[in-house]
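quick one before i forget lol
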Amino acid sequence: MKTIVVGYDGTEASDRALERAGDIAAAFGSSVTVTSVSTTMTGAAHGGGSVDPTDSPETHESLLDTATKKLAERGVQAESVLGMGEAAEAIVELAAEREADLIVVGTREPGFFERLFGHSVSGSVQRHAHCDVLIVH
């Protein structure tokens, strides 16, 4: 296992995913890339459109700093990459670019609308990834 990509958004679920990715990286000597994805306005992701003002890239840069520091405290060096667009798509694309062996994401109990519309980042990642996916509960 050479390369691990971790999706991180600062939630408890993503903290658990980060911890698990750190355990695996330490055991296998894997490189780790942590990503946090800032959403863009609908239809703007491919056209370089505007950033969602409620989900700023600066917030995600701060989350990435936190994540890489947490891994460093455990002796795991990590690269951070700010993603833009739809979270699952950005995570899967980054994993493909890095030729990742594993994607690690957290999951939580879906809310009413997530169940109704079937929107789950972890579920979408596992459906579209071309490598193994570890969904941490």
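fyi The first helix runs from residue 12 to 28.
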